[in-house]
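Most newcomers find our protein records easier to grasp once they have seen one. A learned vocabulary of local backbone shapes supplies the integers on the structure line. Here is such a record, shown just as it appears in the course material:
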Amino acid sequence: MVDSQSAAEPIRYRLIMTLLAAVLATGICLVEPPAGLSPAGQRLGAVVVAMALLWSTQAWPLAVTSLLPLAAFPLLQIQAADEVSKAYMSATILLYFSGFAIAIGVERWGLHERLALFCLRVLGTGPRRIVFAFMFGTALISMWISNTAAALLMLPIALAVLPSISQASLAGKGGEDPAAKEQASNREQRFAVALLLGIAYAASIGGICTLIGTPTNGVYAGYWASAAADRPEIAAKYAVSSGQWFLMFTPISIFLFAAAWMVLCFPLERRWTVGEEAREYIGKRYAALGSMDQAEWAMLGVFIGVAFLWLTRASVEIGSVTLIGWEVVLGSLLSSADGSWDYSGWLHDSTAGLLMMTLMFVIPVRPRGQEHRQFLMDWESIEAKTPWGILLLFGGGFAIAGACSSTGLSAWLGDVLADQLAGLGDGGRITVVTTFVIFLTEFTSNTATIATLLPILESTANSLSLDPRLLMLPATVAASCAFMLPIATPPNAIVFSSNRLTVWQMIKAGLWLNLLSVAVVVCFTLFWVLRVASLGN
């Protein structure tokens, strides 16, 4: 029976936070607007403060808070209802919808488990290599499905492997000596910490290098997509395709992966040996999958096809070399056959995603052990498993970004922030922004944080006469680098729920990785993203 006082706590907390948000918003609306800020911008600021409080405290469900602009903006004459509603069904949101649908197909036919177990079979022998194998498999999967799903997949496998590592094999020739047993127990605990945190960290790091790998990347892409209506030339200049994103941020992801592995494996002794039971368990799990059936092969074809189309759609410039995208090739072929076809501005990565998604509904397959054929995907599965709340969170962020631009709030905040950064060089500015975002997202939703910060950072960069991507890109990547606390990201919370970790263990490893992330993001932004990808001041 639920204790009445315990049941009342969440109700009281939500009501208190709601009242506090309303009081703060009302107070902001009643004071005299600061110099340079329009009344509409002030009212928008009140709504943003209220939403930031509700997002950060999670007093309301994140998706419900994300719906506030649809009601508040028209009522406060910030933006018309028709205008604000467009933010909730943009090309970027459809890109994520198609990505979620394909990921559901991958999970439905077990491709993700096959890939994970294959990586463990090939790479895992000693404790350090087992940690590497789990991290590699998790990172590879999280490039294409959500980091939450990747962590949920790998955690049960890790928890099954841990008991198979006997204390005797870790202790070496310790026999039954109590001191040797204690030493073995300590070693096993250090290994468990490294393995579980490795899964959480790799799930976040792997998503950095693809545009659909983590929601924050999609927020950046959607920001410029939503700006295309009012500022088409600027939006076209700063928009990033999936191929360009992969080229820019894969090196950062690789270095962060290496840094995480070294931080976690540093306490592990090299002379450890792992018993055969761990390897046998992984081998048996993989063998139990059997050979790939017709459904798996078809799903693999869809997966490879959409990945190829995403990565090669737009042309990518690397210094003086240009890699021609398929949209250019297709336009040239059609032009030679029938008039003039130019796909510039017509196609989006969501075009390829939705095309491949619809193919899943018309490809018939016969799964192993079934007499009758069925289609690769059905709508009921999409409807049940799509994280609709994440799509609404995107919409709320895009609505805020659009209103910040139209009301002048982002320009005003940008001027204020620019005054603080004026005396710093590019490296100092990137360091300040990166450090701020990394440690802020330890306590707040990374998607909501980036959705709120991007318009402010663009205006700040404009006030400082900088390329806005100098601040916006590292901030976006930094939002995926919160490694210290269980509440920072879903993968952190998932591995913490195993009851094999303490908060202090997470803080010790996560703090070092947070600091290393600042250095990696700053260095690669300056010397790779901005120079090789032709993103200068």
Remarks:
- The chain is about 70% helix and 0% strand.
